[in-house]
Every structure is written in structure tokens, then in C-alpha cells.
Write a structure and sequence with these properties.
With 353 residues, this protein is of the alpha+beta class. Helix content is 28%, strand content 24%. The strands form 4 sheets. It has an 8-stranded antiparallel sheet. Strand 7 and strand 8 form a beta hairpin. The longest helix is centred in the N-terminal third of the chain and has 18 residues. The N terminus and C terminus are likely disordered.
Length: 353
């Protein structure tokens, strides 16, 4: 699905860096803790909450940084890095990593296999193809696919058995799980309002420093950095919300002159369809940022066919597609519009709003 969370894969994650942009500023806000750091080898992460509590902030940042120690598959000393390097065998998982496996397995089932944590070999193969400029052969793709999917391992609680050589677990597609861990700490600590954001994943609740419900914005794929041309803005309806966006409009991969998606279909071994510009997911409530993250990856893989699946998962989704004439076409789940707030007119060159 999504790529790793290290500096070596920074170009893969940073395209998502502003896919859900927090709206509002902290200027003049009182009794708020607010800090932004760069974690996971280059990804912007921000935490803000009220009432300010530096001890609680330390605990929240601890949960966010722990994800790197658990799941950075480019680090040989991370828990998953050691498993990936160890090959077939039996491993004991920490409670936190076992929880991440459980979440990933639930999302595999919920997405009919479009989300998959053993996709690491695919990512490495296609990134290698980009470097050497040669398209992978059908035989190479078939070989890599042998190490991908639920048959590549078994898990019973905290006991993991890797069954095949070449298996590489990749948890970059559920980095929202780290947000859930930090949010749980803040909620237990009695925060009235908060916003936590890692790249394209955002969780928020309560009233913002502006004295309004929190809003998050989905960029226009043709102008992702232009705050005046955001595709839409979403507002918390009082329950809090977990949001995520995945897209290919910042740094796609290029093999032999052909632009390809950096999100791969684990069922075929091929990159996703580049006509899918982005997928955004919103889930009302708390503690579901990991699910939202996974659903964006599956949504990219499945395209329009994934929208009913997104609704079945209790989420709302937005899919942006590139038409043959270059305009952008919008597809949404039935409840998406309930969260959209009024915005500027449709930008020139876009349609289907």
C-alpha cells in the first residue's frame, strides 16, 4: 500500500504531506499547547490541544515517535525491520505491534484485499524499476507476488509466523494509528479540544483556537499548495473527526518515461490507475485515523468501485478522477456533503463538482 516512514522513502510520503490541511491559526490563542516537529525522516507532524499540559504533551509525542521504533521498515533496528530481515520463522510481537497487525488484518478484510501490509516487496520492486529505468518482467512480478498476501504469514495474538522468504511488512499505510495512540492519551488526560496531524492524516475534536468547530481541507490536485483553491473544506459536526487523503499528484514514480502511481494493487502487483488523482476519507468520532488511512489506500486501488466499501466501513469518501479532456470528476459517498462547508467557486479547468 503506502510506502515506509523513513528518510529514504520521504519522497513517497511527502506527497501526502498537505492532503488534509488544518484550517485556522493559533495566533492569540490562550491556554493552548501547540508544536510542530519533523518525524519519521522528514514528515511534518503537529500537535495542539487545550488546556495546555506539558506532561501530557510529552506523552503524546512519545506515542507519535514510538511508531517509528515499531514500524519503520527501513530501519534495521525497528521491531518490524528486524522481522523483515529475519525471514521465515516465529516472532513474538509487542502488544503495540500486535495491535497494528490486528488493525491491518481487519482492513484487509474490509477492503477485500485492496489494503495489504505485505506489499513491501512490490514497493521496492517498482522503486527499483524507477532507478534502473526498466519495466519489471511478468516473471519478476509473479515472483514478488508469492511473498504478498495473507498466505505469507500467520498470527495468533502476539505470535507471528512468517511462512515464506521475501516477506516484507509495510505499515506506512496505517500511520494514522500513531495519531489514534496520541489522541487516546490526550482524551484520557482531559483535553477539551485538540488537533493532531501527520502528513495527510488528521484527527481533531472540540472548538478550535478561533472559537469555531475544527475544519480540515482537501487540496485541489491541480494546485495542492494553493490555500485559495482547496477542493473542499470539511467541518466537524460535533463528534470530532478522523481524516486522511492519498494521491499521486506530488511525486509519482516514473519508469521508462511512463508516470505511475506510488500506491500498488497487491492483487495484481501493478501500480494503481493514475486517473485516480486522490481519495479522501472522513470518519466521524475518535480513534479511527488508522482505518481512515488504510481506506484511502484501498480507495486508490479500487477507484469508484471502492465507494460502497468505504460506506460499509462506516466512513465517508471523496474520489477525484482525471477525465480524458483533462478536467476533474468528483465522486462521493452519500453522506460526504454533510461535512462540506461553503467554499469559493470551482477553479477553472475543473468540473463535475
Amino acid at each position: 500500500m503506502f510506502a515506509s516512514i523513513s528518510g529514504r522513502a520521504m519522497s513517497v510520503l511527502l506527497p501526502m504531506g498537505f492532503c488534509l490541511t488544518a484550517c485556522g491559526v493559533l495566533s492569540g490563542a490562550e491556554d493552548w499547547y501547540a508544536e510542530e516537529r519533523t518525524l519519521y525522516g522528514g514528515i511534518p507532524v503537529q500537535v495542539r490541544f487545550t488546556p495546555r499540559d506539558d506532561v501530557l504533551a510529552t506523552a503524546a509525542w512519545g506515542a507519535l515517535t514510538a511508531f517509528d521504533d515499531l514500524a519503520n521498515d527501513w530501519r534495521d533496528d525497528s521491531q518490524i525491520g528486524k522481522i523483515n530481515a529475519g525471514g521465515p520463522g516465529t516472532y513474538q510481537l509487542s502488544p503495540e505491534l500486535a495491535e497494528m497487525f490486528a488493525l491491518s488484518e481487519r482492513m484487509r478484510t474490509a477492503t477485500d484485499g485492496a489494503f495489504e501490509i505485505t506489499v513491501g516487496p512490490l514497493r521496492r520492486m517498482w522503486r527499483g524499476a524507477e532507478k534502473n529505468g526498466h519495466w519489471p518482467t511478468p516473471e519478476a512480478i509473479a515472483t514478488v507476488r508469492l511473498s504478498i498476501g495473507p498466505s505469507a504469514y500467520t498470527r495468533a495474538g502476539s505470535e507471528l509466523r512468517v511462512l515464506r522468504p521475501g516477506v516484507k511488512f509495510d505499515f506506512g499505510g496505517i500511520k494514522g494509528h500513531a495519531i489514534d495512540a496520541a489522541a487516546a492519551i490526550l482524551r484520557r488526560g482531559g483535553t477539551r479540544a485538540a488537533l493532531i496531524q501527520i502528513s495527510g492524516e488528521t484527527a481533531c475534536w472540540g472548538i478550535s483556537p478561533r472559537g469555531q468547530a475544527h475544519k480540515i481541507a482537501v487540496p485541489n490536485p491541480d494546485a495542492p499548495d494553493d490555500l485559495e483553491r482547496m477542493w473542499c473544506r470539511l467541518q466537524d459536526q460535533g463528534e470530532g473527526m478522523c481524516g486522511s487523503t492519498s494521491g499521486n499528484y506530488r511525486q509519482p514514480i516514473t519508469v521508462d518515461g511512463r508516470v505511475l502511481y506510488h500506491i500498488y494493487d497487491p492483487r495484481s502487483g501493478q501500480p494503481s490507475d493514475t486517473h485516480v488523482l486522490s481519495v479522501s476519507i472522513l470518519i466521524p468520532g475518535a480513534g479511527r485515523s488508522g482505518e481512515a488511512d488504510a481506506l484511502t489506500k484501498a480507495g486508490v486501488v479500487l477507484g469508484v468501485a471502492g465507494l460502497p466499501l468505504i460506506e460499509r466501513a462506516g466512513a465517508q469518501g471523496l474520489l477525484l478522477l482525471r477525465r480524458a479532456d483533462g478536467t476533474i470528476e468528483e465522486h462521493t459517498t452519500s453522506g460526504w456533503s454533510r461535512f462540506v462547508v461553503r467554499q469559493a467557486p470551482t477553479p477553472a479547468g475543473s468540473a463535475g463538482r
